[in-house]
Design brief:
Length: 376
């Protein structure tokens, strides 16, 4: 083969290979099938929703407090002596005026007799002075040439009359004091009451001024309960009030007496005085001092707004709503009232709308949502 042919093949062979490769590539591209089109659907974020309910009826305000007696008294005898009768027992009920215990009366009866004798003596002394004063007046009127002359007080026994009168008044006061001591030997119930504590026994010597028992009134019991300013707006003066054990149990009707002049020192909340009548009417479920009870006020009626779960409120003024198109709508609302686990709101939300009560990551208006179908 000549040198010229070898050089020609050297240049033509690569060119032929290149053209053949391009031709094969073109054939492959022309014979390629287009990729199948697949629709990708966005499922949306899974959320839990609850329908907004109409806020109707009356708002209830719930709080708690400790029972304190309306009337409470420590019994202190005003005379000393030995106890001869005693009926006190812790928890026992007494009506007003009923005898609680009695102190020996003998010494005080003798003192009364002595005081009565002093009164008689003073009365006789006064009668004697009066007789002398009357005689002196008659003698003065019989004297001749007495015109223009006034008799002296001493001549008419006026100082003696004053002294005898004062002695009689003092004797009568002493008699009244002795009779009062006799009356004080019997200690009676100052009002309808129950005995809390007592330290009296028959034969015991008790001294005047020493506490011997403590009683509480049984007609009413009181509770002082705190409420926030927002709750106070919903409390009605003449609305119904119910009290019941905090752990659950039978309730009892009560009434709101007044708002107290001060505030709760710990929470700076308003304090309301609640009163329960006949606290011991049900002996099995009494309202007794130091009991911790739940207090429920039936407040003012709700005339507008919707009721949503507390979990549906975002940052105190926003609500996430799932629209019929399964998209997120963020609404601004105003909280009217907080209840147990629920809130009454007004604003850009209506009855029946789906309120999102679960958290949403990266919440933005218009984002796609998917409702969780489980039970709440």
């Amino acid at each position: 083969m000549s040198e010229k042919r070898r050089n020609l093949l050297k240049w033509l062979l690569p060119l032929v290979i290149l053209v053949a490769g391009v031709a094969v590539l073109v054939l492959l591209m022309l014979s390629r099938k287009p990729p199948e089109h697949t629709d990708v659907s966005t499922l949306g974020q899974l959320v839990e929703t609850v329908k907004a309910q109409p806020a109707s009826g009356r708002v209830t305000v719930e709080t708690h407090g400790t029972v304190v007696p309306t009337l409470s008294m420590t019994l202190v005898p005003r005379v000393s002596g030995y106890v001869v009768q005693e009926f006190l027992e812790p928890g026992k009920a007494f009506v007003k005026g009923e005898l609680l215990f009695e102190i020996d009366r003998e010494d005080y009866s003798l003192a009364e007799i002595g005081a009565l004798a002093q009164v008689k003596q003073a009365e006789n002394a006064l009668a004697e002075v009066r007789s002398r004063a009357s005689s002196a007046r008659l003698e003065w009127e019989r004297l001749p040439q007495r015109e223009g002359i006034e008799p002296s007080d001493l001549l008419l026994f006026k100082p003696q009359l004053a002294a005898a009168t004062a002695q009689l008044e003092g004797a009568r006061a002493n008699l009244a004091a002795r009779r009062l001591d006799l009356k004080r030997c019997q200690i009676r119930a100052p009002f309808n009451c129950r005995v809390l504590t007592e330290s009296v026994a028959p034969g015991q010597f008790i001294r005047a001024g020493e506490p011997v028992a403590k009683v509480v009134g049984s007609d009413t019991m009181d509770m002082v309960v705190p409420v926030t300013d927002a709750e106070l707006l919903w409390v009605e003066k003449k609305g119904e009030v119910w009290v019941a054990p905090a752990q659950g149990g039978k309730g009892k009707k009560a009434r709101l007496v007044r708002r107290l002049a001060d505030v709760d020192p710990s929470g700076r909340m308003a304090r309301l005085l609640v009163r329960v009548n006949a606290p011991y009417a049900d002996e099995e479920n009494p309202v007794a001092p130091n009991m911790y009870l739940k207090v429920v006020f039936s407040g003012r009626p709700v005339e507008q707004g919707v009721l949503i779960p507390e979990e549906g409120l975002v940052d105190g003024k926003w609500v996430h709503v799932m629209t019929p198109e399964a998209k997120l709508s963020i609404r601004e609302v105003q909280v009217m009232r907080r209840l147990q686990g629920q809130v009454v709101v007004m604003g850009e939300i209506t009855e029946g709308e789906e309120v999102v009560v679960s958290s949403i990551t990266g919440a933005a208006p218009g984002m796609v949502l998917r409702r969780w179908e489980g039970k709440r």
